[in-house]
Amino acid sequence: MAVGQSVLRKEAPNKLTGRARYNADLSIPGILHAAVATSPHAHARIRHIDKAAARESPGVAAVVTAADAQGLKCGEVLEDRPPLAEEETRYWGEPVALVVADGEAEALAGVSRLSVTYEPLPAVLTVHEALRPHAPLVHPDLSGYRQAQPPVAPRAGTNIADVAHIRKGHAEEALRDSAVVVTAHYHLPPVDHAAMETRSARVEILDDGRVIVHATTQAPFEVQKLLARYMKTQQGLIIVNAPLIGGAFGGKTTVQLEILAYLASRAVGGRPVEICNRREQDLAMSPVGPGLEADMTLGADRYGRLTGMKLTVYLDAGAYTDSSPRIARAICSECTGPYRLEHIETDVYTVYTHHVYATAWRGFGHMPLTFVVERTMDKLAAQLGVDPLEMRRAAAIKPQDTTPTRVRLTKSRLGDLDLCLRRAADLLHWDPTPRDEGKGTVRAQGLAALWKTSSSPPNAISGAIITLNQEGSLNLSTGTVEFGPGTKTTAAQILAERLQMPIEQIHVHSHINTKVDPEHWKTVASLSTFMVGRAVMEAAEDVIAQLKQVAAIVLKCAPGDLEVAHQKVYLRDDPEIFVPFRDIAHGYSYPNGDAIGGQIIGRGSYVVRHITTLDARTGEGHPGPGFTVGAQGVEVLYNRRTHHYRVLTAVSVLDAGRVVNPQVARGVVMGGINMGLSYGSREAVLFTRDGALENPDLRTYKVMRPGEQALQYRVDFVETPQLDSPYGARPLGEHGCLAMPAALANALSRAAGVACDTLPLTPEVLWQLAGMREA
Amino acid sequence: MIAVDFAYRRPDTLAGAYELFSDLARRGENPFYLGGGTEIVTGARTGLFTPSSVIDVKAISDLRALAVHDGRLILGAGLSLREILAKDPWPLLSHILSRIADHSVRTQITLGGNLVGSIPYREAVLPFLLTESAVRLYGSGGDRWVPLAHVFTDGSLRLAVGELLVALSVPEAVTRLGGVACKKTRFDWVDYPLVTVAARRQPGRRIPALAVSGLTSGPFRALRVEDALLHAGPAEIPLRELLPEAPLDDRHGSSAYREFVFRNTLEDVLEQLGPNG
Amino acid sequence: MMEIRNRQEILLHVNGDRRRATVRGSDTLLQVLRTELGLTGAKPGCENGDCGACTVLVDDWPVKACLMLAGDALDRRIETVEGLHNTGTQRAFLEHFAFQCGYCTSGFLMVAEGLRRNRSAAHDLEQIEWLRSNICRCTGYAEILAAVRDALRSEVLKGAGLTLAPAASVPS
After folding, report:
1. Phi-psi region for residue A593, left (φ > 0), alpha (ψ -120 to 50) or beta?
2. pTM (global) more than 0.80
3. By three-state DSSP, how is residue A482 classified?
4. Are the beta carbons of B251 and A642 separated by less than 8 Å?
5. A residues 708..727 contacting C (CB < 8 A)
6. Nearest CA in chain C to A668
7. CATH assignment, A31-123+197-246+252-284
8. Less Cβ around it within 10 Å: N or C end of chain C?
């Protein structure tokens, strides 16, 4: 009825009239503004902060520094980050002080009058520099930090914040006995989320102890818990509101501005304070997606069967860990790519540098991981002289195989990669041989495969509450935040399908309020359909049971005789005998006026099952409920003289389990493709030799504009149901981007006859690679 | 938002604008003439500029001129790039203007603003560097036309304090000569140039007149490159010796890559213009 | 001579109405629309003229409101997304699912509306040239381009006295 239909997003009309309200649109008159003084050095000792002139500046109500945070350290996994720099600053753009004032202009004027004396210190600006013996330490007190969400394995006296491993089989021997072995080094720079809405937060501390937060967050319930912990207050007193979000991509999972706004509000007696990132701040001060360096060795026997692999990854976490140790484990979990490999030795180091810190970025490490694996697969195919498609098909992981973390796969858990590969190859008219197109141009294709599971915590929860309006329509409350993929609409579709009723009669709200909405862990990891869907299904069952119970009395039958559909409860054997929802939604009234029942309120609650943390030595464990596999490809037209190129066709085939909303799914995947190609072709957070951010705005941090996207998208889905998911649906929110940079690099490597092992692949990079080949 | 406050003023005449500017400057203020305002607004927001007043001059009728007078095409400095593109009085100029910023911003950027702004590329000047151009200035020296070459040196327009760029002119006949423009960026269509070349046929000469922006710190007429191309192809000319300074080396592109791109662009330009420049 | 000094009340012509606003000379049109007039449809995305999320029409032409001083907008006709009521452009965006998070949508709609008014016969490349002024981070742009193409096509048909099949309606 609703699942499988291209349903418009519930909030769609408001987005076309300017009536959809985002966080900064909901500001209140008289609110104070906090502006941030940020560090002009990548690494410096703070000698002195002179607040006097700023404090005297007209309209300024308070100046807040680390001293006001009383030693507070924040961090999702490892509490290593002071909300405001304490004795030293660790990245260019790090918040050092807040000026709270009547208006934004006054606050900014106050910041310009703040005088901070710095003593610049030597900085480590690459993972190599950070790992050198006697390198300056980003965190000399590394061993003293509280581990908020283990596992994490910091190494005191180094810049290694964490190391995670996979040890399975005997990689060393397997590689030694291989007929062919390829080894390659990869370098991928940090990237920005560049959501169109910058991050912002408002906080008010009421006299009754309640803390009211409005924030651009993907994780309102995380904000609630962290603030309660940091401020040593009850979670119930922290009320977090998350309105519509203007794009997130992982960048709004981090909890940063909420804490700053809290400190600012506390400094002015709890009055409401707003902090809103300017774009430059959003890039420089708030976290980015991690860059990495990686070395991969992959072996095959003489028949082309994969034998063993070694992978070492150095994640550039920047100055603070945030979620990097979790990203490291996500990389470990799927370190083979979607291929069967019994002998694995993988180490993922989370390395501190004096860069802006990193957080989740669409795919949680899987886009760079996929790049590393899929480039190596193409190199191996070239060494063996086999078709890279056929090599991938032969190596594809299958039910009954085990993953790097030793999860035994089933068809339901995994999906069908071979089908994805074949369909993607068909859509691309796969031809691994570059074709000369005349005038110095060449047409070439690249393919890459992907897989991903959620790498979510073992106790992630999700809830749903359904209330009935008197007329028989339904209100559905869930804990997901709405930032584009239409999670609320999907939840409504699942409910409409289960109750066999029109989706127009199901009402959702786009704003989350942690006080009234049931918790959903975080709107991340593409897990909403699965987790919320499970909760919605349970809540629907609850509603059905209650409806039947009342209807059985009204219709003088047993509840077991009844069915529910079309907003009616009816006799299975005679549907003309029924009671409509509207007669029982708020209790049933007999003709003489007395009533039975009450408002129907359904509840559903879900916790992921069988998820475990990974073993510290071997990585054994169960990282997520199921996988999404897929294959993607591109065809490029490349000019050998200028090294310019154009993506002609982009292809994506994901195993979606079941496509709940075809047009929305297609749109999300096309958007992912575009983001992946944007990352692959032009995006990089750049630093100067001094560690200053070199491209802190959207004029210099380049993302794709209209007209630069692939000339043609061919998006398709395979549907191998995940049996424990509502209607079989698998996650697909992040996946559209995952293999695109790899596919692009594979195509360009073939077109240009060079090894594209770094990103972004600008014409200058290709020119350099071609020059190195000739030299 | 812009943290600093400043006054916005829109005088009606050249004299009014100049007097206002001089008056404010005399009082120790920091007035700015405002054209499209795109640079001033962004620069004031980031703290690059701290104007005390902006004097919006683009609506003054002299800055709105677009006419042929005595055989010369006159273009007011206050015309927006979009307005000039819509009238298309000089196709080579249109080629250049159509690649500056993006469509929406071209509705705001003025011809004069692009020439006198602080962003160094000033691509709008390129076609003017290829011919006997003149500029109308209004200021302490009175209201006068002077050859562009006298005031445009080392990549920027040398104006006296308070002097206002009112209009530019070129011989109308030049606007009918063939020309091409070619802009190369790092990768994106909307971006600052790695290299922009404007080329115009020169009657009786095999090599076109060339003006270049992006390659070095400011736009320049590439006379020495033109001469060298008489004797060798773009791939062979000793480029470094022919340029006013070494190619820029920045996040848009390395010095060596810019040189590579410039040579390619020259090839493209020569090919597009065909034999006999 | 027109002048705005300190905080001063001005009249702006917005969405067909004369609206009073108290502004500083250094206030941008975007700032005034959002904080003085409550028209939050135009979004700040970069305040640097790069992203186009704040695009409005000024005398029918798309302009980035973050780059325009309020003083510059005196005597000019300003239209924001709030001034669009069930237009063909909005319907086409709805039909093509041409947005996801919605943050950039107002800006794209205003560029598309500017195209419809000024260049309804624009060919694909010209449409793209206008739309390049804006950035969308969620979609793959194909949906936006298709929506704009359709909106212009129906406009051209309307000019010839023809209509396409009725589209979904957008509440105003």
Report:
1. left
2. yes
3. coil
4. no
5. 709-710, 713
6. C139
7. 3.90.1170.50
8. N
